[in-house]
Amino acid sequence: MVISSEMKDDMFIRTIGANLFDSDFEDGENDSEDDLLESEFEFSCEDKTICDVLKTKTVTIQHKTCTSRDLVGLQVWRGAFLLADFILHNAARFNGKNVIELASGVGLTSIVAGLIANKVLATDVDRENILSLLRTNINKNNHRKNIKVAELDFFWDEYSQSLTEEIETSDIILAADVVYIEAVTKHFIKTLLNILKLGNKNKEVYIAVEKRREASPGGQIIAPMFSYFHQCLHQDLHKTVINDRSTVIVEELQIDFPQYFVYTRVPELTLWKIHTKNL
């Protein structure tokens, strides 16, 4: 099955010009899974205190516009832009912090976090060229030399010593659009719980997820993957006691903050905060 990110439509509309019908390509010729594109995503900056510290206002990303389901990390997804907007709008919250992104994909959110945070660890699964493309994009945009790349698989139960140390010293965990099949969602929640247990810091987790709807066999409009994600959040994380010292709190955040990147911020986009509170 070939899957295309909704950003494919946004990017098409954004690049429409007078020569729209001058291309020699036939319809559908650009939809090959093997095509790798390079796109520049500009963002605005209205807060002078933020603008003065940013090294750039452009993120250059290599990515695909369609892939198989197991390689969706090679595409750009709207959740990454929502999370990037949140970071830019809450720069003071990220300034000086140690950040880890889970399932970084092509790295857009990690790159934006790296413009503000003390350091960022961009992680993903080592499948085909996901990690190599992530490294390519990080190297191209690592203006402050504070972003590293590492493998982290949600299906792991144990981590290397170096990864454990990174997790223990982290302050903020990020993840965008990681919900697409139940098995991945289940192990993603397990990974979050494991991360929250490591170290003595109270961590904050921010997750951007799009509620993707579909028609059921009976004609009802449903969002099964989002529903399962929501169920896991509240059954497996919310109010869970960690290390006999803190409780996990799950809350949904409003997404009415300013938009800095150009994309369609649809109502189906949701943003979640998970944090720990001392007992």
Can you put this structure into words, describing what you see?
This protein has helices spanning 7-14, 48-51, 78-89, 91-94, 108-114, 130-141, 161-168, 182-197, 224-237, and strands at residues 2-4, 37-42, 58-63, 66-68, 98-102, 119-124, 147-151, 172-176, 204-210, 214-215, 221-222, 241-242, 246-253, 269-278. The protein contains 9 helices and 14 strands. A hairpin with a 5-residue loop joins strand 10 and strand 11. The strands form 4 sheets. An 8-stranded mixed beta sheet has the order 7-6-5-8-9-14-13-12, with helices on both faces. A two-stranded antiparallel ribbon has the order 1-4. The chain is 30% helix and 25% strand. By secondary structure, the chain is an alpha/beta fold.
- The total count of strands amounts to 14
Structural class determined from secondary elements? alpha/beta
Question: Portion of residues in helices?
Answer: 25-40%
The main sheet orders its strands as 7-6-5-8-9-14-13-12
Inertia-based shape: globular
Assembly annotation: single chain
Q: Which percent range describes the beta-strand content?
A: 25-35%
Distance between the termini: 47 Å
Question: Which spans of ≥5 residues are poorly predicted at pLDDT below 50?
Answer: 12-32
Main β sheet profile? 8 strands, mixed
* Count of helical regions: 9
Order of helices and strands: EHEHEEHHEHEHEHEHEEEHEEE
Could you tell me the radius of gyration in angstroms?
A: 19 Å
Mean pLDDT: 88
